[in-house]
Amino acid sequence: MNRDICGSLQEDELRDAVLLVFANKQDLPNAMAVSELTDKLGLQSLRSRTWYVQATCATQGTGLYEGLDWLSNELSKH
To answer: InterPro entries of this UniProt entry (predicted)?
Structure first.
């Protein structure tokens, strides 16, 4: 797991927080795939935390609403 993310998520205030990662710039040919980004960030190690990686292209607006919808749905559960 990425040290910065891991350190932040271990803060007591964030113990119940969900994690949304936007994999931006998916319109570019060399963009990292969602699965590769998930592996690089080590998100699978977050077994007790709900997380989601959303592919996005901010300049085109694709994926942004889908990610925010996921976040809204998750937050409404807590």
So the answer is: P-loop_NTPase, Small_GTPase_ARF, Small_GTPase_ARF/SAR
